Amino acid sequence: MKIKEINELLRMFEQYTVEIASTIFIEFLALTKDFEEKDWHYLWDKVKNIQNSRAKFIAGFEILDHISKVEIYEEYLSVLHSDESLDWDERYFLWFQISKKLFGTTDISSEKLTQQQWLIYESIYQKFSSYFFDIPFINNRNENLIFITTQQFLNMKHGPTKTALDRAYILKKLYKNVIIINTAELLGGKPLELLHGEVGSYNENLLKVEKMKYKDETFSFVQLDNNMPNIENSKEFLNFVIKYKPLYIVNIGGNSMLIDICSKAVPVININTVPSGLTCTKATVQVIGRQLTKKDENLLALLGKTKENVIVGRFTSSLKPQMNKYTRKELDIPEEQFVIALIGGRLTQEVTQEFIAMIDEVLQKNVMLMIIGRMHNYEDICKNDPIFGKNAVYLEEQDDVLAILDLCDLYVNPKRAGGGTSVIEAMYKGCPAVTLNSGDVALGAGPDFCVSTYEEMQKQIFRYMEDKEFYREMSIKAKKRVDYMLDSENAFMEIIHQFENKVL
User: φ and ψ at 363, to 5 degrees?
Assistant: First the structure.
C-alpha cells in the first residue's frame, strides 16, 4: 500500500473544497486499485480521524464501496448521526446515498443499521421542519380534491410513475378532481461531491406540462423544480396545499420530507412501492403488504408513530400490454430447452455468489438462464464462471417483457427487497415462480411459490423440470394468483376506505 501518497491525499481532504474534490477522488481510487480488504480497514481508521466533517464523510463514503461489512456501515451512520457540523441538506444527501446502497445490497443488514437510518432521518426532518412555522391543520378541506404525489415521475417503464397514474385513475371515479404532483425529491440537489454518488432522473420537459392524460382520463399535473429538497420551493408548495385544501394527499413511493411536512396541514397516506418493508415516514398513515412485527413497532416509535399509523393492504400491479409475439426459433432457443427467467433492475448487486453457486448446478441440466434487466457485471461473471457463461443469456432491459416471458418456463428470484411487478408478469404468462420467503416478490407470488433457502430453491427448480403434473398444477395456481394481484381497484379502495375511516 502506498502509505505516503495516501496520507498526502488525506491531508488534502482536510482542506476539502468542492473544486478539488473530483481530483482527489480520482487520485484516491488510482492508488487503491490493488488494495486488499485489510488496506481498506486501515484507510477507514485513518478517515475516521479527519477533523473536516465534509472531507471525512466523503472519503468514508468511497471506502464503503469497497468494505462490505455491516459494522463499517454502522460506524459510518453512527458518526453521521452524532455529527452536527454538516448542514441538514448535506446530511440528507448522505443519508439518501447510504439508503440507496443498502437497498440494493442484500448481504449488508442489521436491526441496528435500520434503526440508525430511521433516527438520522428523524433528526434531519426536525431540522428541516424548523424552517416552517405554525403550520395550521386544515379542518374545512375540499371534499372533491385529492393530491397524488410522487418523488419521481418519468415514464410508463418507471414503477412509481405507473403506480401514481393507476391510483389517480381509480380515485377519479370517486372524486371530481385529482391532481398529480411530482415533488422531484429524488435527489436533484447535490450539496456534496461524491464520485460514486447518485442523483435522481428528471424529465425537464414535464415542467411545461399542465395536463396528464392516462387511459380515458385527464389529470392536472404539477412538477417542482429539480433542486429539491429546497426550503423556499417547499414553502411555496406548502402554501399551495394550504390554498387549495385537498381532502388528503396520497404519496406514492418512499419517504418525502416535503409531504411529511404537509401532513401537519392535511392527512397523508404513504403507499410504499416496496410493500414488504416499512417506509421511514412521518405520514399520517402508511401502507405495508404484510403483518407488523415487534421490530416494526419499535421502528415506528423512533418517528413517534404506532401500529395505529399503519394499514396492512395489498399492493397490486398493472401490466404493460404485450406488443409482440416471438417464437423460440426467432431467438435461437431450442424447443426442448428449459428456460428460467431472471428479471431485475439491480441484478448487479442482487445476483450474489451464493445465488450463482445454486443456479450453476441447475444450468448443467440443459437449462438456459434468461436475464432481463440491468446486470453490469454480467461479462465478468461469465469470464470467471464457465458454466454461467455458457448457459446464461443477457437481454438487458426489454420494452415488451411479456413477449419474452412467453418463451420461459420458470421465474426464479434471488434474495432482494424489490422486484414485485416482475413476478406478476411471469405468473400472468403461466410461469410458476420460485422465490425466497422475503421481499416484494414473495408478497406478490404468495406462499405456494416461496422457499426458505437457496438449497430448497434448487430442489424446487428440479421438481418443476421433472414433474410435469406438478408444473401444470402450479401454472394454473400462478394464473389464479395473478387475477387476485391485478385487482387494483378493489385492493386500493379497501385501503382508501380504511384510511378515510381513520382520518375523516
Answer: -65, -15
Rounded Cα–Cα distance for residues 77 and 280 (Å): 16
What pLDDT sits at residue 3?
75
Alpha helices in 213-346 (DSSP H): 231-244, 257-262, 294-302
Q: Could you tell me if 42 and 1 are in contact, meaning their C-beta atoms sit under 8 angstroms apart?
A: yes
CA distance 239 to 242: 5
CA distance linking residue 283 with residue 175, whole number of Å: 22
* pLDDT attached to residue 386: 94
For the chain, how long is the longest CA-to-CA vector?
A: 69
Q: Is 497 exposed, middle or buried (0-12, 13-18, 19+ CB in 10 A)?
A: exposed
How many angstroms separate the CA atoms of 118 and 208, rounded?
36
Q: List phi, psi (to 5°) of 203.
A: -100, 100
pLDDT, residue 25, reads 67
Q: CATH 3.40.50.2000: does it fit domain 142-316+488-503?
A: yes
Q: What is the pLDDT of residue 18?
A: 60
Domain covering 338-485: architecture? 3-Layer(aba) Sandwich (3.40)
End-to-end CA distance of the chain: 64
User: What's the predicted TM-score (pTM) here?
Assistant: 0.90
Kindly write down the DSSP assignment for every residue of 369-411, as one continuous string: EEEEE--TTHHHHHHH-HHHHHHEEE----S-HHHHHTT-SEE
CA distance 100 to 265: 29
pLDDT of residue 22: 63
pLDDT of residue 248: 97
Question: Could you give the CA distance from residue 179 to residue 174 in angstroms, rounded to a whole number?
Answer: 13
Q: Give the pLDDT confidence score for residue 17 in this predicted structure.
A: 65
**Residue ranges in the chain modelled with pLDDT below 50:** none
